[in-house]
Amino acid sequence: MTSLKISDIKKENDIYKVKVDVNVYVNGVKHVVKVVPFFKPSKVVMLVDDLIGFYKKAATEKITIEEKYEHDVIGYFMLKHFTNIKFTTSKTAYRIYDEFQSIIESPIYKSLLLAFPEESIKAVYERILDVQEASERIKQDTVKLELGLNKLVYKDILLSGVNNNDTSVL
Prior knowledge:
Layout: H1 6-12, E1 20-26, E2 29-35, H2 41-60, H3 70-82, H4 93-104, H5 107-113, H6 118-151, H7 155-163
Antiparallel strand pairs: 1-2
């Protein structure tokens, strides 16, 4: 048995550098789309962060995303992060949603998603679930903390500076 070296780990991580060419036809013109089939964990984190940001912006811009499109929105972000398709650089939810609607209506959408192995797609969904569970735990902990503070006899003294914007107590 040999000792594990960082160089061994780096070699294993080379899988994230693999790119596959997928030929697609749009308006009768052949295009070669480079697809990264194996998702680097740090890129999955970025994808989910972008997804969350999109939903937050959509809420502030009053854009309703139908529940039936939730998986397609995730697919859109997978294509955005793991292909060389030129997507909008706009940060507005309106523009991103418009682009999303265009791509899901295209026949290439499904064929490009099929280029991703199940394990890569699963990694995205697992990260989404991890974030949802962490968010729920934070909410529960906040409620417990608030309940605990309400039971304190001296809570008014502890929180006296918080309500008046007087931070000298803290």
